[in-house]
Design brief:
Layout: E1 3-5, E2 14-17, H1 21-26, E3 33-34, H2 44-50, E4 57-60, H3 65-76, E5 81-85, H4 87-93
Length: 109
């Protein structure tokens, strides 16, 4: 399965966060699209509308397990998707910004 390191992401890369609502509210990457894994299949159309047509989708969760499942699903659908290795835990650990919905500093559960 294709993966990418947090450090390899650019600021304008499309990021799909598949963590649950409470995790998202605690803190997330600014500009990420949030579709919890528990609702992913039902809300798949939101991703196809929001994602860049010819761009790569970077899938992230807390540590990389749930996002790996979603990445495999997307690849099976013929979509260019990669799992963000280490997830939001590593994202925060390397000093990338984590925010709440109102733009305040957040944290990773």
């Amino acid at each position: 399965m294709p993966t990418v390191e947090v450090g390899g992401l650019k600021d304008d890369d499309f990021l799909l966060d598949v963590r649950e609502d409470d995790e998202w509210r605690a803190g997330h990457a600014q500009g990420a699209l949030h579709i919890p894994i528990s609702e992913f299949v039902a809300r798949y159309g939101e991703l196809t509308e929001a994602a860049p047509q010819d761009g790569r989708i970077h899938v992230i969760c807390r540590s990389g397990g749930r996002s790996a499942q979603v990445t495999m699903y997307l690849v099976q659908q013929g979509i260019d998707a990669v799992n963000v290795d280490g997830g939001m835990q590593l994202w925060q650990a390397v000093g990338r910004p984590v925010v709440t919905d109102d733009g305040q500093p957040g944290g990773v559960l």
